[in-house]
């Protein structure tokens, strides 16, 4: 009895020898045993996995926020090769669940620091977003600006702002939650307010990632978020090299 099956894009003919009641297969016109068919299948899968390692696959909802700052959904193993190209120094993780072992090992092997700010994922429309947590996370993204008095040539005192370069030690960094929509969207939206974006532009960016899952509560949170007390912080220039 002969049965043809499609395996990895090739037809494999399964043959049962009635006299021996033994399963064999025909792969590329070559008769092989059942064990050899299994090995052939495993080799094909392994080959595909090796090819995936050489591909640069960004995480879900990946995007550049600004120089040295990126956002995305939860990165998987297939995204590690791509993330290596970013030269990350830090990751801001906005979920309460422990970081997976594979991801932790990736961070360790690449010298990347993990900052976890747990925000519960909630599908309810009345979910509260912890403002204090958002502010603490923003301190990792932003850098401190020190203002000190200086004198003009004519003796008039004024304030000059000095960006502390040491505070960009966290950059480049990646902000992510699970899907890169709500928690990440709120943090980026509050960052935009500190950059003095108009509210309509903040909402447009949020909805671009949240799409049909956009929440009124998230947008209300960003609207009410007071960024004036972040005036001593500033968004840094790109820090693309370690």
Automatic annotation (TrEMBL):
PROSITE patterns xrefs: TYR_PHOSPHATASE_1 (PS00383), TYR_PHOSPHATASE_DUAL (PS50054)
Gene Ontology cellular-component terms listed: cytoplasm
Entry keyword set: Hydrolase
Catalyses which reaction(s): 3,5-bis(diphospho)-1D-myo-inositol 1,2,4,6-tetrakisphosphate + H2O = 3-diphospho-1D-myo-inositol 1,2,4,5,6-pentakisphosphate + phosphate + 2 H(+); 5-diphospho-1D-myo-inositol 1,2,3,4,6-pentakisphosphate + H2O = 1D-myo-inositol hexakisphosphate + phosphate + H(+); 1,5-bis(diphospho)-1D-myo-inositol 2,3,4,6-tetrakisphosphate + H2O = 1-diphospho-1D-myo-inositol 2,3,4,5,6-pentakisphosphate + phosphate + 2 H(+); 6-diphospho-1D-myo-inositol pentakisphosphate + H2O = 1D-myo-inositol hexakisphosphate + phosphate + H(+)
Enzyme class: hydrolase
GO molecular-function terms, A-Z: diphosphoinositol-polyphosphate diphosphatase activity; phosphatase activity
Protein name: diphosphoinositol-polyphosphate diphosphatase
Organism: Papaver somniferum (Opium poppy)
EC number annotated for this UniProt entry: 3.6.1.52
Stored Pfam families: Y_phosphatase2
Source species, domain of life: Eukaryota
InterPro entries assigned to the protein according to its UniProt record, in alphabetical order: PFA-DSPs (IPR020428), Prot-tyrosine_phosphatase-like (IPR029021), Siw14-like (IPR004861), Tyr_Pase_AS (IPR016130), TYR_PHOSPHATASE_DUAL_dom (IPR020422)
Record-stated family: Belongs to the protein-tyrosine phosphatase family. Atypical dual-specificity phosphatase Siw14-like subfamily.
Domain (Tyrosine-protein phosphatase): residue spans on this chain: 61-237
């Amino acid at each position: 009895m002969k049965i043809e099956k499609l395996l990895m894009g090739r037809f494999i003919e399964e043959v049962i020898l009635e006299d021996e009641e033994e399963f064999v297969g025909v792969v590329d016109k070559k008769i092989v045993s059942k064990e050899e068919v299994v090995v052939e299948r495993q080799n094909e899968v392994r080959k595909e996995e090796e090819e995936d390692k050489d591909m640069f696959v960004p995480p879900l909802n990946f995007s550049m926020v600004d120089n040295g700052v990126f956002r995305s959904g939860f990165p998987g193993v297939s995204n590690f090769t791509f993330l290596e190209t970013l030269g990350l120094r830090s990751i801001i993780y906005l979920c309460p669940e422990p970081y997976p072992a594979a991801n932790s090992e990736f961070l360790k092997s690449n010298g990347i620091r993990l900052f976890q700010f747990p925000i519960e994922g909630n599908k309810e429309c009345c979910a509260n977003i912890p403002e204090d947590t958002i502010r603490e996370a923003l301190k990792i993204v932003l850098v401190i600006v020190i203002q000190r008095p200086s004198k003009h040539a004519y003796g008039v005192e004024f304030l000059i702002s000095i960006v502390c370069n040491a505070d960009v030690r966290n950059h480049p960094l990646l902000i992510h939650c699970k899907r890169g929509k709500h928690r990440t969207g709120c943090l980026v939206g509050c960052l935009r307010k500190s950059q003095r974006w108009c509210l309509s532009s903040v909402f447009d960016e949020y909805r671009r990632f949240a799409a049909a899952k956009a929440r009124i509560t998230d947008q209300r949170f960003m609207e009410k978020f007071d960024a004036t007390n972040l005036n001593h912080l500033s968004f840094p220039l790109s820090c693309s090299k370690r």
